[in-house]
Design brief:
The complex is a heterodimer of chains A (592) and B (271).
Chain A (H helix, E strand, L loop, with lengths): L1 E3 L23 H6 L4 H31 L9 H37 L7 H23 L28 H29 L12 H32 L10 E2 L2 E2 L7 H34 L7 H14 L17 H27 L8 H24 L1 H7 L3 H31 L5 H28 L16 H34 L63 E3 L2
Antiparallel strand pairs in A: 1-4, 2-3
Chain B lengths: L1 H19 L12 H31 L15 H30 L6 E8 L2 E6 L27 H4 L2 E4 L2 E5 L4 E7 L4 E4 L6 E4 L5 E5 L5 E7 L12 E6 L1 H10 L3 H10 L4
Parallel strand pairs in B: 1-5, 4-10
Antiparallel strand pairs in B: 1-2, 2-3, 5-8, 6-7, 6-9, 9-10
Helix pairs in contact in B: 1-2, 2-3
Classes of the chains: A mainly alpha (592), B alpha+beta (271).
């Protein structure tokens, strides 16, 4: 904290580099389809991600129906069940959450929030989307291929993932899944480099790194992580393809499959697990950090109060990102790796709880002495805090190596990761869509529909996943097509399963309300002003709403202050946009 | 204001559910009560934090809700408070981690008097191998597996000839004697899981993994596979019977050794 006399921040040098001439679309096709405008690409990413997400939602219904009414639905046999869980998991983690947060929100918000006209490499940005779409199509092709999609579980552990005991193992399923992931990583890299370089090089004058909104910090850091983590997945997929197609033995030891000696020897299945989780754990934070950033801005804006402890929030994001690269083997405590690793990975994992807890405290302390407007973005943010705290705390069970032993591979794990990286980030996505929809479309989302959707989704999801922990505590294993006759599972557990399934059906159906709201409001929603939430950040200061091509009209914005000047004492309004120069004579606290 | 009420109900409801729900861990049948204790410590610490944070959120939303004329305070940072909360969290985390690591050290340190018991998994069947009179298991190798030698025991290793081999049957263990469970898979990943023992470990083709425990009460327990191993995963069941020493010896005497297994295979040559 430093005392800077007002006007100090005005001493920004004039632009030394002339604006680059933007690419201008010449036809309808290049304007709306093969667009190089990040805002259009963002919408394309979002629509694709949400569409494939709906497939994952339906798959979750089907698997829940099987768990509640085993054998009742003839078309859900064991093969299909495992194909459903696999596709559900992979779609949700990679093709929905990663794509929506980085490709969707990243593309829309980074240029607008840092004051750029567009991403720095618009052509690569366009390619990124089309390659992502190709990856989605390859993934979906699995449903129509002979043998269907892979049923190896989203972790795709070899050797079973490429053997005949697993659906799709010796058919097209696993090949399409691996190919789709490889294509996804290629497409993501093009977008990811864009996001990183735009944040580093494309910021408006005066937009120092420590004046950036936390949304940008979250997406930026997550993208850096993704660029470092996805290569591990990429090589793992290539190696497994070689094992499957060329007869190599990267992950394949000597195996006797159903009485037949296979022609593999010397490979290590556990090597794949290390590669997978070296990607897979950072992936959790690739999804979580954008949500952390976005929810910080939602809370601050709608509580009309600066985010508490901004610098600590930035450092917490950076520290979490760094630590998340040295915790991956906490997914492997009972994998058979050298058990001595447990000491190291349990320690690093529990250390991550400290910066994460700091973030939670700072969100909550932002509410303290705020002026809380219970808008839908704020309500979703509150729901996020509850579910994230719940899911984060159960992570302390699973991260602590010895406590993980009885809980690993049970429904406790399923409940934990759904709460912490499914429900919590998705609630942020809903809040964020309510928050930024007026900027994207020029219209407000309908409040009544929004509230119906909010209450069912928040409470329903909590009712699904909170009790599920206790099934895991009881010992019910995950990834069971049916639990069957098992001595330690009482009939009441089955009743709970039926309850969870009913809640899942209801929560799933409530998403139709949200989709309807998105489409209906596009045409009938109340018209929004350029800054309906009276927010400080740059995207709300554009000359047009929705922002036109090039975002800023003739002159780029100049930034004079941090993103959180809400309720500044002495200021006439309860927010001061980042573009407003400091008033002469007024001395105030300025964040460096 | 509904949200304040709902948040409060959520806290109360979650605590009540925890206290009243009929779904709790199975009665323990091994020496790993330490694991259960660490779990209880974790429940207490995390439970208090959950109740505190969510209640505080509910209070803030009620107390600082927007009313005309309200204005938020302007307080960008509070170093002291942030430091205090961070160190408090660090203490809480250490209170869970330190006992956890001590118990983990016990978990991975096999006592020297633990009797070796080999569990061999395949799609979708459990088999077992116990040392014979010499107390040692013979060497084994996936490559040595044939229809007559389903576990791939090395015929040239004298230590293996008297090994007791149980295919797809049930495993018996004497109560009160520590066992060193050696885990082997001949095809894909599996995981030997008996909820009452609290221990589990993946089985990896090409590797031998392990854990140890002491059965502390007699009874019959389900063996489940805890690592997705293909479509037969949920059907991959077995039984482990923990019994008194005499009963165990009587059972052991009825099992066939590797030598007997090879001999019976010769009597019935494969067509």
């Amino acid at each position: 904290m430093v005392e800077i006399p007002a006007g100090g921040a005005d001493a920004v040098p004039a632009a030394e580099v002339e604006d680059m001439e933007l690419y201008h679309p010449k036809s309808w096709w290049t304007k709306y389809v093969f667009s190089q405008d990040a805002k259009i690409i963002a919408v394309q990413y979002s629509i694709t991600a949400i569409s494939i997400g709906l497939v994952a939602l339906v798959l979750s219904w089907l698997m829940r129906l099987q768990l509640a009414f085993p054998g009742y639905f003839a078309f859900i046999d064991a093969d299909h069940y495992y194909q459903f869980i696999t596709m559900h998991g992979m779609i949700m983690v990679v093709y929905l959450l990663t794509a929506l947060f980085l490709g969707g929100f990243g593309n829309y918000l980074i240029p607008l929030m840092v004051g750029a006209r567009d991403m720095v490499f618009p052509y690569a940005n366009m390619l990124s989307y089309w390659i992502y779409l190709l990856a989605v199509l390859i993934l979906v092709a699995g449903f129509f291929a002979p043998g269907g999609p892979t049923g190896a579980g989203w972790t795709l552990y070899p050797p079973q993932s490429v053997l005949s005991g697993t659906p799709g193992g010796q058919d097209w399923g696993i090949l399409l899944m691996l190919s789709s992931l490889i294509v996804f990583v290629i497409g993501f890299t093009m977008g990811g480099l864009n996001y990183v370089v735009t944040v580093l090089q494309g910021r408006a004058r005066g937009m120092t790194l420590m004046r950036m909104p936390l949304t940008v910090w979250g997406i930026f850091t997550a993208t850096v992580m993704a660029l470092l983590a996805f290569p591990a997945l990429f090589v793992a997929c290539v190696m497994m393809l070689f094992d499957r197609l060329l007869g190599t033995s990267f992950f394949m030891p000597a195996i006797v499959e159903m009485g037949t000696q296979l022609q593999h020897a010397g490979g290590s299945p556990i090597l794949f697990q290390h590669l997978f989780w070296f990607f897979g754990h950072p992936e959790v934070y690739i999804v979580a950090l954008p949500a952390f950033g976005i929810v910080s801005d939602l809370i601050s804006t709608h509580a009309r109060k600066n985010i508490f402890g901004y610098r600590m929030m930035v450092w917490a994001i950076v520290i979490i990102a760094a630590l998340s690269f040295v915790v991956w083997a906490h997914h492997m405590y009972v994998s058979g790796m050298n058990p001595a690793f447990g000491f190291f990975f349990a320690t690093t994992t529990l250390i991550i709880a400290v910066p994460t807890a700091i973030k939670v405290y700072n969100w909550v302390l932002t509410l303290w002495r705020g002026d809380i407007h219970l808008t839908l973005p704020m309500l979703f943010a509150l729901a996020f805090i509850v579910t994230f705290v719940n899911g984060g705390l159960t992570g302390l069970f699973l991260g602590n190596v010895v406590v993980d032993v009885p809980l690993s591979d049970t429904m406790f794990v399923v409940a934990h990761f759904h709460m912490v990286m499914g429900v919590a980030p998705i609630l942020v996505i809903f809040g964020a869509i309510h928050h930024w929809y007026p900027k994207v479309t020029g219209r407000m989302l309908n409040g009544v529909l929004g509230h119906i959707h909010y209450w069912i989704t928040f409470l329903g999801a909590y009712a699904i996943f909170f009790p599920m922990h206790y099934l895991g505590l009881l010992g019910v294993p995950r990834r069971y097509y049916e639990i069957g006759e098992t001595s330690f599972v009482p009939p009441s557990a089955h009743t709970l399963n039926i309850f969870i399934t009913i809640m899942a059906l209801i929560v799933g159906a409530a998403q139709v309300v949200f989709l309807f709201n998105l489409i209906w409001s596009l045409f009938r929603g109340k018209e929004a002003s350029g800054n309906p939430w009276r927010a400080t950040t740059l995207e709300w200061q554009t000359p047009q709403t929705p922002p036109a091509h090039g975002n800023w009209g003739k002159d780029l914005p100049v930034v004079y202050r941090w993103a959180y000047d809400y309720s500044v004492p002495g200021a006439p309004e309860d927010f001061i946009p980042q573009t407003q120069p400091a008033t002469a004579g007024l001395t105030r606290e300025v964040m460096r | 204001m509904a949200v304040v009420l709902i948040l409060a109900l959520l806290v109360v409801g979650s605590v009540l559910f925890h206290l009243l729900s009929p779904w709790w861990w199975t009665p323990i049948a091994s020496n790993w009560t330490y694991i259960d204790n660490t779990l209880i410590v974790t429940f207490w610490i995390t439970g208090v934090v959950f109740v505190a944070v969510v209640s505080f959120v509910a209070y803030c939303v009620w107390r600082f809700r927007h009313r005309p004329g309200n204005r938020a305070a302007y307080e960008p940072e509070n170093r002291k408070l942030e430091l205090l909360l961070a160190s408090g969290t660090a203490v809480g985390v250490a209170a869970m981690l330190v006992p956890g690591l001590f118990v983990w050290n016990q978990f991975i340190t096999v006592p020297t008097d633990a009797a070796p018991v080999e569990v061999v998994s395949q799609q979708w069947l459990w088999s077992f191998r116990l040392p014979g009179a010499d107390g040692k298991l013979g060497r084994s190798e996936t490559r040595d597996i044939t229809p007559e030698n389903p576990l791939g025991v090395n015929k040239n290793d004298a230590a293996g000839l008297d090994d007791v081999i149980i295919e797809g049957g049930e495993l018996h263990l004497p109560v009160g004697k520590p066992v060193h469970i050696l885990l082997r898979s001949i095809d894909v990943l599996h995981d030997f899981y008996v909820p009452e023992f609290r221990a589990k470990m993946d089985m990896i083709p090409g590797m031998i993994t392990y854990f140890w425990f002491t059965p502390t009460r007699t009874g019959t327990f389900d063996i489940l596979c805890a690592e997705l191993c293909g479509v037969g995963h949920p059907q991959m069941r077995g039984t482990v019977v923990v019994e008194e020493a005499e009963a165990y010896q009587a059972w052991l005497a009825q099992q066939q050794t590797f030598t007997q297994l090879l001999a019976s295979a010769e009597l019935q040559p494969a067509n």
